[in-house]
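Table 4 source record.
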Amino acid sequence: MNPTESLFRLDGKVAVVTGGAGGIGTAVCHALANMGARIAVIGRNGGKAAALAAELQQAGHQAWSTAFDLVSVKDTERAIDEAAAHFGRLDILVNCIGSLRKEQKAEEQTEDEFDYMISTGLKGAMFQSAAAARHMIRQGEGGKIVHIGSVRSLLALRGRGFAAYCAAKGGLVILSKQLAAEWAPHKINVNVVAPTFVRTAQAAVWLNDPTFRANIEARIPLGRVGEPEEVASAVLFFASPASSFVTGQTLFLDGGLTVTQ
């Protein structure tokens, strides 16, 4: 193995991927597993999580899965603790949760939907991180925490009902900075990968609208939306030894969108 390749290897590491059976999460699980990590797939749909774990096992990787209630702090802690117990350690957390369930214009925003978005996109990130960090701190060997954010932490979207989503993703960025500062003495790196629209089943509700997609792609200098594998590559950097001196940062994976907007 050459020195450069070793910077990205994850042999012996255990990675918990929440939302792991989603479009981005699946790509992340495969990318980390291909570099040697053992994968705990955690999601709200236990069947999908189990199917992905089985797929990874068939490919020769070590994988395990469980379901959890993503708005329950107690159940979040239970799932992450079970993952650590199953593999005997926990080194990496990748949080792929926080998609928009229901678009609502600000003047029509319901309390229930706003609370749900904050609970899943921000509160959930906090307590997933804390549950994982406790294991990393106890192990005394550092760790990596990566959250999937969004360009909506920096840019609003005209004419759409993204207020709750933007609030959650904006909060996630500053939360990650604070966690990075607090846990730096324990050598725990906390970073955010913030893509624009990515071609997944979850984004199809917007990207299948030809007018909407054309408008989005016209604003992106590279002229297209992202691919799940491109997000996974950025996550791999933050999860690997290659990023050992990077913490509290947000990487905008956006084809140049935030350069020009």
